[in-house]
Structure formats: structure tokens, C-alpha cells
Amino acid sequence: MLLGIYLVLPVLNGMNKMPMKEIGLMTVVILVFNSLLPTFQLECGIAFPIASIYVGYFFMGYLVLKAKDCSFMKGKTLIALVILVFTFILLVGDRYLSVVKGEKIGVDCSSYVSAFTVLQSAIVFWLLTKRAGCFDRFCAMWLIKRFNRCSLGIYIIHMLWINLIIKVLHINIMPYGILGIIPMGIIVFLLAWVTTEGMIRLPILRRYL
User: Do the Cβ atoms of 153 and 89 come closer than 8 Å?
Assistant: First the structure.
């Protein structure tokens, strides 16, 4: 998926020259095929060429950033917070039913392609743009800047550590439930971060990570 995004980046980088209406239509089409239909497990019998929701996130983030001060969004902070809490409850409830109870409700509420997750992401991003000054100061902190620099590498490398822990060390945390998942998640995150910090110091890898 990451390679796919890199392949379409030259096209996406030309968005500044595209009318907002065209970008909006492209975003809607991508999110309908890659998010809305999968969320409700619907099929339309049409093969869609862009099969990655990440492209939809890319377009959606651009639209939110450009439209953050539009008149339609003014005074809607409370509504956005209510929707944010609602989607969070859906996400937690879906994970609880599927992981703890082993039940499925027929609607995907919590995966990264879910329409509810997409909506939640858009709201969080929009709320952060409204506090751009505070957020910029937060992002200027040394530790946050280092994390931002390594975020792509962490995303790529973390699965390597998960596989090593499960398949090589034969450590199974699932019987411990949340008490095992949280500390293991922190350990994997830190290992991936340290690994990435080392890798970006190699000239041949620096430009890619």
C-alpha cells in the first residue's frame, strides 16, 4: 500500500492546480468504493482502480485543510465533538464484541477502512486545525519532531518486531487480554522507533524513511 501511494504521489502533488470541485468529487468516489461500501459489506459489481483507502485519507486531509475556515463549519465544534464521542463508542464497542465476545454485527465500525473511522479522523484533523497555534508549538518540541521524523519508519518496521516476537520468540500475549496488549504495544512501538532512528542514519535509507 505504501508503494502504491508513492506511485500516485506525482499525480496527487498536482492537486493545487485542480479545481476544488474535482478534488471533492474524486474524494467522494474513492471513499464510497473503499470505505462506505466495505463498512456495510456491500458490493456493487464494479472494479475500482484505486484500491487503497490511504489515497482517500490523503485527499480528505487536503480538503479539510483547505475548507477549515469555511462558513459552513463555523460554530460546529460541539456537533463535531458529539460525533467524535459517538464514533469512539462505536469503535470500542465493535472491538469488544469482535475480540472479547467473538461476535460480529455485520457492520465494520473500527477498521481503518470503516466510514466511521474515516469520519472520526476527519473530525480530529479539523479540530486540530482550529488550534493550529497550540498544535504547532506542541509539534515544535524536540521529542515530537523526532517522532514525526521517524513515523513512516515506525509504521513500516513495527510489523517486523511483531513477527519476531510471535514467530521467533513464541510469545503469545492474547491470553492476558488488555493487560498483555498494552505493554506489548508500548514495547513494539519503542523498538520500532529505536530501529528507525538507527536506520535513518544510513545514507542509503535516509531518503526513504
Answer: no
pLDDT in tens, 65-120: 887 777 667 778 899 999 999 999 999 898 888 877 778 778 888 888 999 999 99
* CA–CA separation, 170 and 152 (whole Å): 27
Q: Which candidate, 132, 107, 137, 115, places its Cα nearest to that of 60?
A: 115
Compute the C-alpha angle 176/177/180, nearest 5°: 60
**Secondary structure in 3-state letters for 19-34:** CHHHHHHHHHHHHHHH
pLDDT digits (tens, 9 = 90+) for 129-151: 887 777 788 888 999 999 989 98
Question: Which residue type, as a one-letter code, is found at position 170?
Answer: H
CA angle 3, 149, 182 (to 5 degrees): 85
Spatial CB neighbours of 73, under 8 Å, sequence gap ≥ 6: 67, 126
Query: The dihedral of CA 47, 53, 58, 63: what is its sign?
Result: positive
Give the span between the Cα atoms of 101 and 94, in whole angstroms. Answer: 10
DSSP 14: G
Phi-psi sector, 114: left (phi>0), alpha (psi -120 to 50), beta:
beta
Helix, coil or strand: residue 138: helix
| CB distance 113 to 53 below 8 Å | yes
| Interatomic CA distance for residues 155 and 192, integer angstroms | 8
Cell (9 digits) for 70? 469555511
